[in-house]
Amino acid sequence: MLLRDFILNRMRMGHVYQPVMLKALLQGNGRVSLRDIAAAFLALDEAQLEYYEEITKRMPGPVLSRHGLVEREGDGYRLKVDLK
């Protein structure tokens, strides 16, 4: 079966899972781990992204800030340590 034919004529979607998995496989030159596929799904799950943004703001962000390793910068964090 040709991939193009499947995508254009046969694929039926109830969610983004099929195209996301195919994209991951194409980017991985035809092979990708289950974990990488799951990570690709997770990256598109807005509710989960918002949840982990809140986790970051409540736990590791403040702890690392207290240790002087990071500081808030805009909508994120930046390292305050020398990487050399």
Structural write-up:
- The chain is elongated, with a radius of gyration of 19 Å.
- A hairpin with a 2-residue loop joins strand 1 (70-73) and strand 2 (76-79).
- The chain has two domains: 1-44, no CATH class; 47-84, no CATH class.
- The protein has helices at residues 3-10, 17-27, 34-43, 46-58, 60-66; strands at 70-73, 76-79.
- By secondary structure, it is mainly α.
- The protein has a two-stranded antiparallel ribbon.
- The protein has five helices and two strands; from the N terminus they run αααααββ.
- Helix 2 (17-27) crosses helix 3.
- It is 58% helix and 10% strand.
What key attributes describe this structure?
two-stranded antiparallel ribbon; 2 strands; 2 domains; single chain; 10% strand; 84 residues
What is the compact description of this entry?
The chain is mainly α. It has 2 domains: 1-44, no CATH class; 47-84, no CATH class. Helices cover 58% and strands 10% of the residues.
Task: Please report the distance between the alpha carbons of the first and last residues.
Answer: 51 Å
CA radius of gyration is 19 Å
Strand segment tally? 2
Beta-strand percentage? 5-15%
Based on helices, strands and strand pairing, what is the structural class? mainly alpha
Helix/strand layout:
Layout: H1 3-10, H2 17-27, H3 34-43, H4 46-58, H5 60-66, E1 70-73, E2 76-79
Antiparallel strand pairs: 1-2
